[in-house]
Specification:
The protein is mostly helical and 103 residues long. 65% of the residues lie in helices and 0% in strands. The radius of gyration is 24 Å and the shape is elongated. The model has no long low-confidence stretch (mean pLDDT 84).
Amino acid sequence: MANTNKRYEPEFKKKMVRLVSEEGRTIASVNKEYGLGEGTVRSWIRQFEEECEKNPETKDTKDIYEENRRLLKKLEEAEKEVRFLKKQPHSSQRKSIRAIPIY
């Protein structure tokens, strides 16, 4: 179980928030991977969002995280489409209709 009295560096907290906000990781997966308590990352995200409301510079950071997340999703969709299209037979590899015998 995670130590409830442990102090974390601000850079570590920012990294955990970025993993969830920008990369789309789940809070549970981040908690499990880094051995954090259930509400730890959630509270850091809440603090980050509160700071965004007060500080325009932090708000810009949040906007960048959201834009990066959107672009990563778009890239993933494009890569899926490319993989799908690569599986399709090329038009020159398809059998010609004329090659099919008609009885």
